[in-house]
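ok so I'm stuck.
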Amino acid sequence: MSSAKEPGRENLRGVRVLLGVTGGIAAYKAAYLVRLLRKAEAEVVVTMTESASRFIGKATLETLSGNPVVDNLWQPALPRELSDVEHIGLVKWADFAIMAPATMNSLGKLARGLADDALSTIFAAFEAERVLLAPAMNTGMWNNAATRESMDLLARRGYAILGPGRGELACGDEDEGRMLEPEELLSALEEKAGRPSGLLSGRRVLVSAGPTREALDPVRYISNPSTGTMGRAIALAAWREGAQVTLVAGPGVATTPGPINRVNVESSAEMADALLGAAEEADLVVMAAAVADYRPKSRSDEKIKKTGEAMQLELEPTLDILSAMRDRRLGGYRVGFAMETGQAEARAQAKLEAKGLDLIVANDLEEEGAGFGRESNRVTVLGLEGFRKEYPLMDKDELGRQLVALIAGRAFGQTRGKANG
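replied:
not stuck anymore, here's the structure
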């Protein structure tokens, strides 16, 4: 039997999904939906109401998702990346949220801004464009004027309404109100994941992230502590804003959703080849990788043996990728990063001018909370004609979103009120 994925299924690889389960008989279908999401290589966290637990047990959903179920606002944050405030942490962690089943009560609360439990509070904090709703209820409830009003409000605000379908209901009637099948919900989520919209819709964005490794011999190399967290956050934020994203990632950069075109590289030479090739078609380049400035002049084909004597290592400069883009007029709008120890802004300004950049993100390693291997960062963005914007200490995912919004505005004149025309 073939194990090949169906067309489009790769759209959910690495995508983070929050599944909200409310108290309807269709809650039993949530188990199969979680299984389908995991099979599509999505990451899943489930939040459920107290009523939902009467229809399906937490243990089932925890086992299938691989994560604890969130059913109150006071339990510790999870997965590991989440902040201490559960509903905010999950909103930042998830790429999309789907409420399935969505009862009359839960839809009414969401439409009117009522948040009195974990699920309603978490969903209230999501942008409508990232949420899918799968109504399921008795036909009388579905046709109730209050439900129709709730659905109209939610649709106008940008929520994706999936169904309901027509079929046999729990009461025995054959009518409208049946939740769509998990396969249908999965397909809708795949389509949404593959076709996001936002400030960068239709733009081709190239991002670099992570370190490079410059080999000394088959087992040793010169590198740095970069994890690529900042570059990855920018790539994800650009994708969420509708861009066609290519991420050139050095070793150790965490996984990314399937719709992001990822190119894994090892050395600075490999990174240069990948970036210069992709930059020919790019509207925007964000160079966040920590590329080695020097590499060994020669590489030993065999492991260098320890002799107990001093060893001299001759290094040669690597290609300056941003300068090469400038000289070849590649990459459209170009944004660089400058990680410094002291005089960060002055050195970043000099780099901005020397490399012909449009913006540069100055990162001072001596500032508390900033730098390599951290979940937080604080930066200052510098641009032409004296532009300067300082960002306080915040987690890198949120900083990535704010930087992408800034870049979209300065590069393409797109702000939240002008997105998509």
